[in-house]
Write a structure and sequence with these properties.
The chain has 247 residues and is mainly beta. The protein has one domain: Jelly Rolls, CATH 2.60.120.200. Helix content is 13%, strand content 34%. It contains three helices and 15 strands. The strands form two sheets. Strands 1, 4, 5, 7, 11, 12, 13 and 15 form an eight-stranded antiparallel beta sheet that branches. A seven-stranded antiparallel beta sheet has the order 2-3-6-14-8-9-10, with no helix packed on it. A hairpin with a 5-residue loop joins strand 4 and strand 5. The longest helix has 18 residues.
């Protein structure tokens, strides 16, 4: 009977752990020689680039990468990246051109279930979008023009009801977008749409994805100190506590 009790508690604990509001992808590009970029979240969503990206100095004085229009990255699909109810996507970007380009996109093409993306349109106007939401939410949450050849911090959030787009830590635009995203087994792409188009020319640094919507205050903190925000909810009960009979 005691064994069954511990099994049930373990299942509850594991379910709570997996449902915690958390950082699910963090590519800092620091000390990542070669074609792989290590994911610093606990989920192991490492990125693999088709060729080794050029290393440059980032906006915070650390390493960043420079994409040349033919270099792009891919992260294998995982349950942690199937964000159905809320999300935050952040990145420092250094645009070299005006054309529409992908920063991060889940899915190899537009109009695929489970797609969500942070990108910029022609004229370097940033966009946060997702496919499984009302029509205006696919390409109407468009921010103000960001500068060419200068680092800009972008963040897009969705709390299940509303998209918000932040530029350099300040709310720039928002739109009601209620709904739920579907799960998919499609990869997440960096600097391209599916490895076939929308190839980015410019710099990227500190790409982060959360499975919940950060507040504006937290986004500002994350912008200046990317190590400051990892999980919103820490579990108060540990397996050691359960085994020890503390709870």
């Amino acid at each position: 009977m005691k064994t069954i009790f511990f099994i049930l508690i373990a299942i509850i604990f594991l379910s709570s752990y997996l449902m915690a509001k958390d950082l699910v992808l963090y590519l800092s590009f620091d000390r990542d020689p070669g074609k792989q970029a290590k994911d610093l979240s606990k989920f192991g969503n490492d990125a693999e680039f088709n060729v080794e990206p050029k290393r440059i100095e980032g906006p915070l004085g650390n390493d960043a990468i420079q994409l040349d229009g033919i270099t792009w990255g891919q992260v294998a699909s995982s349950n942690s990246l199937n964000l159905t109810k809320s999300l935050t996507i952040e990145a420092w970007v250094l645009p070299f051109e005006d054309e529409k380009r992908i920063i991060v996109e889940k899915g190899p093409t537009w109009k695929v279930d489970g797609e969500y993306a942070l990108l910029w349109y022609d004229g370097r106007r940033p966009v946060i979008q997702a496919y499984d939401l009302p029509n205006d939410c696919d390409d109407e949450v468009v921010g103000d023009e960001i500068p060419k050849n200068e680092w800009t911090f972008l963040a897009g959030t969705w709390d299940g009801t509303k998209f918000r787009l932040y530029i350099n830590g300040k709310l720039n635009t928002e739109m009601d977008c209620p709904g739920t995203l579907l799960k998919s087994n499609t990869p997440l792409f960096i600097g391209t749409r599916g490895g076939e188009m929308r190839f980015m020319k410019g710099g990227l640094d500190e790409i982060k994805i959360y499975n919940y919507a950060l507040s504006g205050e937290v986004i500002q903190r994350d912008m200046h100190n990317p190590q400051s925000v990892k999980s919103q909810m820490k579990l108060s009960t540990t397996w050691g506590d359960i085994k020890g009979g503390k709870r």
